[in-house]
Specification:
A hairpin with a 2-residue loop joins strand 1 and strand 2. Helix 3 runs antiparallel to helix 5. The longest helix has about 30 residues. It is built from 14 helices and 2 strands; from the N terminus they run H-E-E-H-H-H-H-H-H-H-H-H-H-H-H-H. It has one domain. With about 300 residues, the protein is an all-alpha fold.
């Protein structure tokens, strides 16, 4: 692991190595339809819905602008992770692959969840369709399913299951070999992270919910950190496909590439969850939920009237 500090210091300018020789061609942008089309559609729906909602909700301007900024920051992070050279580089370096996943789950997902995008996107639909979707979303079965899916404990179990399952050698290498499974992998990471962060912020019930959210965040930090630590201290590569390519970040061996990836999951990933847990603890020890609590409310509050 003696070369890991050097790799960490210059990780912003990655080069790929193949067969022991430096690869001069840097990874390029990946404008693949599976990523580009959903990104553009989600941005279009959100911006169109935001414009409509802003005209209708005169007294909600500051809140809408704040949420719009959060969504755009999250969207740009998600786009950068999935279509920038980072994505192509991740096909040859586990470290870059890990950075891509961490950006999706620890930066893009919480920013987008905080922006409460679903209710805004509904406003992009025509009036009759919007009213129908709103009534359907407020229905008993959908409300029950959403309430239970976004319960902090449920969302935490889903998040940990997705992280551990997709980093097991079998499923991970299946995603490396087959583009379809690679797409499924990224969808699972994004949706589980959106569900998790939504549950942490909006799935709480009363003041005690802050304490439960803090506990769930702390357990997630331990669960993800344990997986990262196992990768960091592993004496052999977990993923034969990466090892067979003989490619790694900055000329690292496959073992060192995996160790650096594990370190990124372990330390920065754990710090994000631990920091969020501290915020929840502070709110739990304070006055809890109040009228001015920016973390209060649900996605249905932005729905148009049925």
């Amino acid at each position: 692991m003696k070369r890991l500090p050097l790799a960490m210091a210059v990780i912003a300018t990655p080069a790929l190595a193949h067969g022991g020789e430096a690869h001069r061609d840097l990874p390029g942008w990946s404008f693949e339809p599976w990523a580009l089309v959903p990104l553009l559609l989600s941005l279009g729906f959100y911006l169109f819905g935001l414009a409509r909602l802003t005209r209708r909700a005169e007294n909600s301007g500051p809140t809408l602008r704040r949420n719009g900024a959060l969504f755009l920051l999250g969207w740009l992070t998600l786009a950068g992770a999935t279509i920038s050279p980072l994505h192509e580089g991740g096909e040859h370096s586990f470290t870059l692959h890990m950075i891509e996943h961490e950006l999706i789950m620890l930066v893009a997902a919480p920013l987008m969840a905080l922006s409460r995008p679903l209710g805004v996107m509904i406003w992009a639909l025509p009036g009759a369709v919007r009213t129908g979707v709103s009534s359907w979303a407020r229905g008993g079965a959908i409300h029950w399913l959403w309430r239970h899916a976004t319960a902090p404990v449920t969302a935490t179990l889903v998040q940990l299951a997705v992280i551990w399952l997709w980093h097991a050698p079998g499923p991970f290498e299946q995603a490396l070999r087959h583009e379809g499974w690679h797409i499924v992998q990224h969808i699972c990471f994004l949706l589980s992270a959106l569900l998790f962060w939504w549950a942490m912020v909006f799935g709480r019930q009363g003041r005690s919910g802050y304490g439960l959210a803090a506990l769930c965040l702390f357990l997630t930090s331990l669960g993800g950190g344990a997986l990262g630590a196992l990768m960091t201290f592993a004496i052999s590569p977990w993923y034969a496909d990466y090892a067979a390519m003989g490619m790694g970040l900055l000329g690292l061996t496959p073992e060192e590439d995996q160790q650096l990836a594990g370190l990124i999951m372990w330390i920065p990933g754990g710090m994000v969850h631990a920091g969020a847990a501290l915020i929840m603890l502070v709110r739990w020890m304070g006055n809890g939920r109040s009228r001015t609590d920016p973390l209060a409310g649900s996605w249905q509050e932005a729905m148009p009237p049925a």
